[in-house]
Amino acid sequence: MTDDNSIEAAPMCFACGPMNPVGLKIKFELNDGRVTGQFAANENHVGFENTVHGGIIYSALDDVMANVLYLQNRKAHTARCEIRYRRALEVGQTIRLSGWIENERRRLIVLRGEARLADGDELVADAEASFMLA
């Protein structure tokens, strides 16, 4: 289930904002503490030749992890994030994103995220991030 009020609070978010004309417009859903979403890269997301820029993949992963907290009305900011790219993503390919909490101590929350090909489930990239509660 999504929280429509959360989406309205960040309409210009690059990754999930519905009003951002150059944004990714990813729609996230929260179910049982896990957030999921999908993203299909287009020609505006190219890095080299037909390959999606790594920063686009990073943005999608950062936002799926952030939304684990955001969709539960918990304000936090990325403090650190490490990403590992496993394979190239080509323009036109769709990835499924998922994010979840790994560990939580006081104001520091460690989250994990994955981007997998929607067709075949192959891992494109995964990330681990520390978020600080506001």
Describe the structure.
The strands form two sheets. Strands 1-2-6-7-8-5 form a six-stranded antiparallel sheet, with helices on one face. It is globular and about 45 Å long. Mean pLDDT is 92; it is low at 1-7. With 134 residues, the protein is α+β, with helices and mostly antiparallel strands. Helix content is 17%, strand content 43%. The chain has a single domain (32-133), classed as Roll (Thiol Ester Dehydrase, Chain A).
Blueprint of the fold:
Layout: H1 4-9, E1 29-31, E2 34-40, E3 46-48, E4 51-52, H2 54-70, E5 76-85, E6 94-105, E7 108-117, E8 123-133
Pick out its properties.
two-stranded antiparallel ribbon, Thiol Ester Dehydrase, Chain A, alpha+beta, 134 residues, six-stranded antiparallel sheet, 2 helices
C-alpha geometry? globular
CATH architecture identity: Roll
Number of domains: 1
CATH fold annotation: Thiol Ester Dehydrase, Chain A
- The fourth-level CATH homologous superfamily is Hotdog Thioesterase
Largest sheet: 6 strands, antiparallel
* Residue-averaged pLDDT: 92
- What radius of gyration results from the CA coordinates? 14 Å
Uncertain runs are 1-7
How would you briefly describe this protein structure?
The model is unreliable at 1-7 (pLDDT under 50).
